[in-house]
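[recover] target loaded
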């Protein structure tokens, strides 16, 4: 099984670049088994989406 440290590195990298098929499969397998990493991935996705909305002018303040 992939380590949590390696998983979080891939989670971060997937924001900046497309992961290879091998990386996606490793990460998906780890996320199926690790609640903490799954939660971390959800939080990173949420933060990334919020930043994208802010960058696109989705926030009027």
């Amino acid at each position: 099984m992939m380590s949590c440290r390696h998983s979080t590195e891939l989670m971060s990298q997937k924001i900046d670049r497309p992961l290879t098929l091998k990386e996606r499969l490793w990460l998906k397998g780890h996320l199926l088994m690790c609640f903490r990493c799954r939660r971390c991935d959800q939080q990173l996705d949420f933060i990334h989406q919020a930043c994208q909305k802010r960058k696109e002018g989705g926030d009027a303040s």
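[recover] notes: The chain has a mean pLDDT of 91.
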